[in-house]
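Course exercise 7: structure representation. Students receive a sequence record and must write out the corresponding structure in C-alpha cell form. The form below is the worked example handed out in class, using Beta-glucosidase (159 residues). Read each field label carefully; the graders check that inputs and outputs are placed in the correct fields and that the protein name is recorded exactly as given.

STUDENT ID: A-19
EXERCISE PROTEIN: Beta-glucosidase
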Amino acid sequence: MLNTDWIIPASTKEEDALATRRALDLTFGWFLKPLVYGHYPVNMIGILKHHLLKGNLHNRFVIGPTAVTSWLNVYPPGIKEILVYIKEQYKKPIEDSIADSKRVNYYIQYLYHLQQAIKEGFTSGYSVTFGLYHVDMKDGLKRYPKDPSGWFKNFLRST
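STUDENT ANSWER:
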C-alpha cells in the first residue's frame, strides 16, 4: 500500500509550484516512480545526492482542519487531486491483477503480526478512534452509529 499526502502550493508563485512538485516527488514519486518507470524522480536524485542527511521537512504547512488527532488533517478535494495527479504523471493503470496471492499473504502476515503486538501489550491503537461507529470499550464492545454513518448509508443506497 502506498500512502501519501496531497500537497498544494502556498501561493501562485512559480517557486511554490516547484517546491510542491519536489515535495510530491519526495513523498510520493520517490516510491511510485521506480515501480512504474524503473527509476527515481530525476530532481530527487539531484537534490538528495548532496543533501540526503541535511533534508528538512519542518517548513511544511497543513491543508484543512485537524481531525481527531494532531497528525491528521481533513482535505476532501485531495482524493480527487491525487488520483488525477497519478493518471497524469504515471499514465498507467494502478490496478494489479485480480489473482493476487502475494497480497493475500501480505494481509495474513500483517494482521498476524498486528495481533502479536496487541498480545504483547500494544493498546495505544485504541486511544484515537476513527470510523463511522463508536465502540464502547466498557460495555461489551457495543457499537453506536456516529452522525456520519447515516449520511454514508444513504449515500451508498443512492449510488
